[in-house]
Write a structure and sequence with these properties.
alpha/beta, Gyrase A, domain 2, Rossmann fold, 4-stranded parallel sheet, 13 strands
Length: about 575
Amino acid sequence: METVIKELSAVVSDAFERCGYDRSLGSVIVSNRPDLCHYQCDGAFRGAKAYGKAPLAIASEVAELLKGNPVFAEAAAAAPGFINLTLSDEKITAYINEMISAENAGIPKAEKKETVIIDYGGANIAKPLHVGHLRPHIIGEALKRLMRLLGYNVIGDVHLGDWGLQMGLVIAELSERYPEYSCFSDGYREGDALPEITAEALNEIYPYASQKSKTDPAFNEKAHRITFELQQGKAGYVAVWKLIRRVSVNDFKESYRRLNVDFDLWYGESDADRYVGEAISILREKGLLCEDGGAQIVSVSEEGDKAQIPPAIIIKSDGAINYQTTDIATILQRKLDFSPDKIWYVVDKRQELHFTQVFRVSKKAGIAEEKTELAHLSFGTMNGADGKPYKTREGGVMRLSELLDNAASAAMEKMKDSDYAAEGDIKKAAEKIGVAAIKFGDMINQMSKDYVFDLDKFLSFEGKTGTYILYTITRINSILKKAEDSVSGKLVAGIYSQAERSLMLRLIQTADAFWAAARDKAMNYVCENAYQIAAAFSMFYHDNHILSEADINKRASWLNLCRFVRSLLILHMDVLGIETVEAM
């Protein structure tokens, strides 16, 4: 089925055309004055100059033609030239019932099943996940789920940082702590024993080795040499590297499980390494590489740049490759493996220059086809109450696992007096509620903006919070449970109150909200729509005594509406990667 905006726009466009005007003037939008009308069209303003008529005159002609259409209860021109449209109750009810009967509430699929690769996560192995990793993981996961719902072929890639100097630093320090193992010498044979390494040990080793390299020139030189030899395939180092990677990934997966995040590809920078040579050859063949102080660079500045964009460094003066080179090689790999139509990178806004350089080089070289959309979906910083990046109470960087623990504990505290504590698994529910609070509290914000992380606010049962949405779902669960077997059919019979009408009008905007989120790559649209549905349901519930309603047909219709609201809210939460609970 079509979105309601698209369907209404077609009706109004037909009317413009029948009146002798261009049908493109018939685009409809949701009214920002719901007290006056449900939808509006401002096409008369755009047509006024082309047709030499006053906007109000054009609007009046079109509105007059629309008055006889059963879709509208009212169609009227309003000064200085708007067309105000109020849907008929019959149209609202019919659209709701069509949504109820359709798969995924009738949200239309993309006309073309394009392939979208979403690069999100980007954690470095041998380091713990911290709060700075929260946003790319949850935003990328939600975008992946949204685009799949809309019919795209979506591939989520974690793209781990697993191939740089950090590996040389860790292996160098391990070699000094465990010199007896053959993997640190030339005598390694496949199957030889490796040192026992835990995630907790790695979390201590990397910062220690990093600091050591700054004060110990010999150790620093050793780490660089090991990095080079690892990337050249020295067997012992490769074996240790694989162990480090495996231990880190298993540790990451526990946090990902708690966040309800997963990936189709567990690739890293190491997987693109074998494409680096081919990428450099392409740049050389295209005549794009230039020497500058011993380095090989590609100029990426373009006419119209507001600020000077420095060249991309492809090969450093010491012969090593740069992060830009690896990312360009990754685009080549993705092109050869998946022929994607879109590649989206969910990475913080500090990397804007990096991606501008990488994208421009890739396009100039033909490594990315001209039709391929390369987009950096930048996000702002998660800050504390002081406006600075979120820290522990001691001022250190908080681990992601600690953040999740804190949220679960806070949710548990809120639920301790709940009836649910006696009848359900409160610990499991508190975990879900805590994660819902964090994820919704993050994604309700415009992605590119910084925001203040306030767990108390996010766990509130009022306002735009994940807790409020979950509570609304559990309230409906309670209604349906009390109704037991008295719910008949699944369709709504009509509209019996203004609060019901307002709720149904909000429900029919869902498909447009989801498609707007995909268009603007903005998950806050989905969050906002979920909140507006929950708030409208609260008013409906307050104004109508559903369970005690004497009219059997009205009661059945309301119960069916409740059931649909529940399913639609669950759909919103599933797209956001948030699990619901049965009771709170």
